[in-house]
Amino acid sequence: MNGTNLLKIALRALSNNKMRAFLTMLGIIIGVASVITMIAIGQGSKKSIQEQISEMGSNIIMIHPGGDRRGGVRLDASEMQTLKLEDYQALREECIYLSGISPNVSASGQLISGNNNYPSSISGVGQDYLSIRQLNIEDGEMFTAADIQSSAKVCIIGKTIVDNLFPNGKEPIGQVIRFNQVPFRVIGVLESKGYNSMGQDQDDIVLAPYTTVMKRLLAVTYLQGIFASALSEDMTDYATAEITEILRRQHKLKESDEDDFDIRSQQELSNMLNTTTDLMTTLLACIAGISLVVGGIGIMNIMYVSVTERTKEIGLRMSVGARGIDILAQFLIEAILISITGGLIGVIVGCGASFAVKWIAHWPIFIQPWSVVLSFAVCTITGVFFGWYPAKKAADLDPIEALRYE
Asked: For residue 25, is it within any domain?
């Protein structure tokens, strides 16, 4: 018996029991749709996080003073004064894997302009800070090297500061704002960046020369941190190793001594978040995949029923020359048709459900082509796996016993 005849027989058998075939497919449809939707939501979240980290600068390296142990007690990093301007200068001159580097010191207080005030902080940074953090000036200009050298009282502000200190549309450029009684002239306004993945307002920012903040606000000679950016994300590890070597030499640390500084990169944060989202996506996909197993069991159940109902028909076919392999192929084709049709409908439903989640819940989604192919392949394998045993049982029937079956 050729394949075309077997396919026709299988299609006729399914069309005679349309509702039963559809209900059997339902488990496969739900399973495939669930897997595609869950993976789309998980991959969408991962892609959204990666984009937001890239906006902050995926190759950023942050250097902070490390905690020290004195008399058996580990001190808080904020109390340490291990990072100096000399460290910044050494890194700037010697590091070959860095595209930019900037000191960082900050002070908290109240910003005042006329009758308006707003609680915030002011960050003392260098000229490379904008490129490191991927910030752009919308209006005005960046402070110069001469401003840094002279500790000029100038600043650049973000949109949130503009909205709170100049609410009536007043031009902020050239205006003087006071921070803890120290006047600063606004020379630039940054482009809006909104909130980041951590829920922090990236527009609540005031930047000034680091020398100004160190001398006029904090009266300190040490740095609270150093921001740097590697030449590329792939070179972050090389840059980190280079920074570690230079700082250990600057601080005259022995091989047995622990680092008195901490180095963190956005790559570490990205890897951690990606690992978490991948784990959650896998978990959701596995839970959704249970529906495929349930659908497969449904196929096996219905095929058993079909074999039992058509025992006499099987005996008749065998008596007129049908071989066991033909009977096996007939029932296996029926199982595969059910799973493939359910898989196709499931793919359509899954893609539709993913876009519905995006439009209704406003969640980021990203449909991976491999998730569609994988779901379809799994449901086909499911049909073969769960349809094989009932089909084998039908093929092994004794023709005489089958003809006698009532």
From this structure: yes
